[in-house]
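During the reporting period the student researcher (J.K.) took over the structure-prediction task from the postdoctoral fellow and processed the backlog of single-chain submissions. One of the processed entries is reproduced below for the supervisory committee.
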Amino acid sequence: MSATPERFAGLVGQGVAAIDTPALVIDLDAMDRNLHRMADWCRARGLRLRPHAKMHKCAELAKLQMAHGAVGVCVQKIGEALALAAAGVTDIYVSNEVVDPAKLARLARAVRAGGTRFAIAVDSALGIERLAQALAGAGVRAPGAMDVFVEIDVGHGRCGAAPGEPALALARAVAAHAPLRLAGLQAYHGAAQHQRTPHERAATVARSAEAVARTRALIEGAGLAVPLVTGAGTGTFVHEVASGQWGELQAGSYLFMDADYAANTADGDSPAFEHALFVKAQVMSRPEGRAVIDAGHKSHAIDSGLPRVWLPEGLDFANGGDEHGVLRGAALPALGETVWLVPGHCDPTVNLHDAMIGVRGGLLTGRVERVLRVDARGAVD
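J.K. obtained the following C-alpha cells:
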C-alpha cells in the first residue's frame, strides 16, 4: 500500500500555485458532477453500478462512489482487491481470472477474515478447482461464501470461455462447489470502448448481446440460475443497457474522463462527462520555437496516446522522453509558467503517482481540499 508522501503535507487549504510539479490533480467540482450524473443515470433505469476501481486505485474514491449508490467496485488484480479491502472497501469484485494457487490463497484468507465481500471471475475448470481448493485450505466452507461469475468472450479475444456449451460446463463446475455461488456472467468487450462512433459501438455490442442471451438461456435451461450479467464500460454502457441483457455496469473512467475516451463521439443517451484528472506541469526550459515542461513518461501513460494540453489553449504536446514534454504553438508559455495536461489514459497514469491532489474551485484559482492516497499503486499481482 502506498503512503501519502511527506511533500504533500500542509498542502490542504493552499492555492493551486503551491502544488509542486509534476503532480496529479483532480478537479473535484468536475469529478463530483461526473459522479452524480452517472449515479443518477443508473438509478433512473434501475441498474446496478459497480465502477472499476482499477482506474483510480483509491479507497477514498471507491467509498465515495458507494456512498452515491454504487453496489461495490471492480478490480483486476488480487493485490488491488486486498489493498482496497485493507483500507475499508467492503464489496470488491475481481473481474479477472486468477489461477495461481498462492494468489488465490491470499484471497481466500481475506474471505475468511470477513469485513469485505469478494467475488471473482473464472473462465476455466482449473481456475474453479483451484479457487475451491484455496477456500477449503483457508477453512471457508459456508455455502455461497464467494460469488463467482463465468466470463464469456463476447468478441474482444482476450479472456473468457466461448459462449454456449463451454460456458455451461463452467457454470456446472461452479455449482458443484458449495462455498461458490454462481452469481452470473461476466461479459465485457474492452476493444469496443474505443471505437469512435456510436454506430460502431452499437453494432459491436449487439453481437455481444446475442452471445450473452444465447449463453444465459442455455444455462438457465439446464436448471441453473443466472442472477446477473455484469460488464460494460464508459465507452459502451449505453448500448449494453439498451440491449436489455446487462443488469450491472462496470464503467470506471467516467469519473475522470481521459483524452482517449473524450475522442469518442458521444452517444445521445449518455450523461455528459467532463475532464477531471490533470497533470500539473511547468515550463522548465524555453529554447527558441518550443517550451519544454517537466512532465514526461514518468508522469503520464502514453499507451493510449500522448496527453492533450488543456491550458494554455492552442498548444501541441510532443514526446520528450521520461522527464520532459515538448510544447509547440503560436503562443508558447513563458519559463516557469504552469501547464495543465489531460492524460491519454487515466488508469496507468494514476498508477504512476502516490497521491492525487483534489482541488476545489477550478484549476486556476482553486484551493487544495484534500490529498487522496493511491492505495493500490503498484498492486499488479
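The committee noted the following: The mean pLDDT is 97.
J.K. will present the remaining backlog at the next meeting.
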